[in-house]
Amino acid sequence: MQVLQVQLEVGPDPAEVGRARRWARSRLVGSGIGDDEPLAETLILLISELVTNAVVHTGCPAVLRMLFGGGGGGAGTVRVEVADASDRPPLQRHAEGEDTNGRGLELVDGLADRWGWQPEGAGKQIWCEVDRGAPTPVPEAPPRVVVQGGEVCEPPSCVFTNAPGLA
Predict the structure, then answer these.
(1) Which of 87, 89, 104, 148 is the most buried (most CB within 10 A)?
(2) Nearest one of 165, 69, 80, 162 to 117, comparing CA atoms
(3) Taking the C-alpha atoms of 132, 138, 141 and 142 in order, what is their torsion angle to the nearest 10 degrees?
């Protein structure tokens, strides 16, 4: 089976999450996944959550990888990997009510067909997979968060800003 792998180095700045989303969207289109397909939206949300967690909770650069498995007629698996320099395992939290943090890995768990983590070098890699032939849940639009002073901020830039515990 032929596998196409692409990767992007992501700096330790939350603004890099938007760049990673734009890069990933262009690579999805290049792999034959239409920009308007529910699968693309699901993958972009998964990428956004994993990159946000790596950048915000480690404060170190990360590497985003996408692997497109072979298979005819749109079949195959898309694997997303985010590697960072922290050896601390991810901590899946359970947000409650109006909590503005702690939903990232819950989203990954709900949207990906499989996910997990493993050591990589001195750090770790968190990965998730979505099967292209499987029905893809359409992610809901992320909630808008109103911050102090009435300014509106959209996740992930403000959702994980102060979240401790995930590295």
Answers:
(1) 104
(2) 80
(3) -60
Structure tokens at 38: 């529910």
Residue 124 has a CB neighbour count (10 Å cut-off) of: 22
Using a cut of 0.85, tell me whether the model's pTM lies above it: no
Q: What is the CA radius of gyration of the chain?
A: 15
Tallying the residues shown for the chain, one arrives at 167
Question: Whole-angstrom Cα distance, residue 103 to residue 6?
Answer: 27
* Residues whose CB is less than 8 angstroms from the CB of residue 51 and which lie 6 or more positions away in sequence, other chains included: 10, 16, 17, 20, 21, 62, 64, 82
158-164 own/partner pairs: CB under 8 Å, 24+ apart: 158/100, 159/52, 159/100, 159/101, 159/103, 159/104, 160/14, 160/52, 160/53, 160/56, 160/57, 160/101, 160/104, 161/14, 161/56, 162/101, 163/56, 163/57, 163/93, 163/101, 163/102
Q: pLDDT, tens digit, for every residue of 88-123?
A: 888 776 766 766 666 678 889 999 999 999 999 999
